[in-house]
Amino acid sequence: MPPPTSRSVEAIARTAVLATTIRRKNIKKGLTFTVMIVGASGLGKSTFVNTLCESPVFPKKDYSNPEKAAIERTVAITPVTVDMEEDGIKLSLTIVDTPGFGDNINNEGNFLDILAYIERQYDDILAEESRIKRNPKFQDNRVHALLYFITPTGHSLREIDIEFMRRLGRRVNVIPVIAKADSMRPQELAAFKKKVMEDIAYYKIPIYNFPYDEEEDDDETIEENNELRALLPFSIVGSEEEVVLNGRRVRCRQYPWGVVEVDNSRHCDFSKLRYMLLSSHLQDLKEITHDFLYEQYRTEKLSREGDVDPDELADEEARTEAQYAKRQMEIAAAEAARGSMDQ
Ligand SMILES: Nc1nc2c(ncn2[C@@H]2O[C@H](COP(=O)(O)OP(=O)(O)OP(=O)(O)O)[C@@H](O)[C@H]2O)c(=O)[nH]1
């Protein structure tokens, strides 16, 4: 590489000053971030959200009455925004809870609805970008990370997990997590984590694996990313219950044999996941969403040609894509019709 000229050094310095100014402005204004929660029914997704936000974002369900519990289940894709403060920076966190799947023989509907939600946010940006006069109040609702809850079976990944993560990973940063990790012994958990990562590699599932650039990133970043990568899939325990242990208030799940602490990194990875998600890797997740995942969607969408009859396609993946495109057009048409009725 040729040595930098004084002009290029000046340009680099100017860019650095500009970046710092933008960062300072953002810090003052606060950050926005969106996380989607996906997984089978009853895996503790709502409890996790309440634990993450340290507030009852979703009401606690009454599982003592099976009929009531069935009614209280999450049945629609529900975005909720919570204002928080992380490391002195204001954070407007949007959590998108999704209905738990696994009860139906065919889960394709759940999958298509989740994918449609993610892509609709991309379409909104695409439409906004092509406007001559931008809407200053436009809200970017793109999903920056998707936490995929894996059932703590101890066996290999289930077919539905492989399919869901493989297909969603093309559109969003998928972070796999092991739900209800307190239901496994430490050795079992370690073996299960290894098995899950072997499956992820074998089936070429695109997940967010803390990418870094050996040439550009500093040693500290590389080391931190390697440490986080080694924790994948994050083991999590959720609880809204607090007890006093040795004079400290801790969030935990209590058992006759002892207590599993949510925030103790020897018990589970909750605190490390929370920190990377809402602090250390928040910006990276946003950048990958914008520079890579959205960009890829945009290119595909703009180069897609003509109308396709989904049922005539032999290839399963193409058929699903086309069915999805058709569904999205139906949703858009329904929304347009609703809009014209409102006027
Ligand atoms: N053992 C254990 N139980 C948990 C954990 N997190 C939640 N639970 C329990 O699991 C049950 C289901 O929790 P929810 O948070 O309602 O599950 P969900 O995934 O939101 O359920 P759906 O809305 O049906 O998809 C409740 O009884 C929770 O107390 C956990 O980390 N470990």
UniProtKB/TrEMBL annotation:
Keywords annotated in UniProt: GTP-binding, Nucleotide-binding
Pfam families named in the record: Septin
One GO-annotated biological process of the protein: septin ring assembly
CDD domains (alphabetical): CDC_Septin
Segments forming domain Septin-type G: 29-304
GO cellular component: medial cortex septin ring; mitotic actomyosin contractile ring, proximal layer; mitotic septin complex
GO MF terms, alphabetically ordered: GTP binding
InterPro entries named among the record's database cross-references: G_SEPTIN_dom, P-loop_NTPase, Septin
Family of this protein: Belongs to the TRAFAC class TrmE-Era-EngA-EngB-Septin-like GTPase superfamily. Septin GTPase family.
Protein name: Septin-type G domain-containing protein
